[in-house]
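TL;DR need structure tokens for one chain.
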Amino acid sequence: MTDTEPFAAPGAAEFAAAKALLSPWRALTDPRVDGYANLPADGRYLLVGNHTTLGVFDIPFVVLGIHDETGVLVRSLGERQHFRVPLWRDLLARFGTVDGSRENTRRLLRAGEPVLVFPGGGREVARRRGDYYPLVWRERIGFARLALEFGYPVVPFAMIGVDDMWDVVADADDPIYAPARALAARVDIDPELLFPLVRGLGPTPLPRPQRIYARLCAPIDASAFGSGWDDASGAAALRDGVRDAVAAGIDELLAEREADPARKLIPRIAGEAGRLTLAQADAVRRLLPGVSR
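>> reply
TL;DR here they are.
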């Protein structure tokens, strides 16, 4: 593949397959995604947010939602270690994920494509005991330097729901992980990224039913922080501003969820059953005007 050749993009068949595969999970979690109006209309933006436990249980709803609302495919940047796994890397590529190297990211930005970045990467996915929607961004400024270099606005986004589905029983810092850490290091896998052992529904690893929430926040103009890849201080300030916006989005969603009667599965089912019953009764009345109200 040449530097100017576009990355393969999923077509209608892939989008249909993704929606079909996700339909049971969608029914269980009833995801609520808002803020689509904050996305720049020209499709040039970096979408930057938080990863949640195990990493793949909420973000597909955001990517599919953006495609449904705007017709734009957001390119997700994947950890390089994903692309070392046969078959899995092919599946990721087929659904539009790109190996998140700096060179690949620059190709996407030069082409004017929107790009999804998780600065916390696999470390946020590999949640530790005691973590609750953590932002483990450390001193990473790569996404911010690229935003400055290409003049891309940054759209912060926040997600909650998944961290409430599981409790972490053991994580990569636990002594019982010592053999796994040694093996990971031997095969050139970062031991910090080992998935935790989790408990969900009762003593099982099945997820506790929780609604998923996501919010696309107001875009941040990168040019207000500086310009060019070499502007490290401007990039650090931009990163901090984006991180603060993501943290504020998480707090907003947590507060709003407390007042949401559809947060848990049973109230959602009861509410939906009530709506269906009213709709059916109304349909009967329309068909049989003589039926008493």
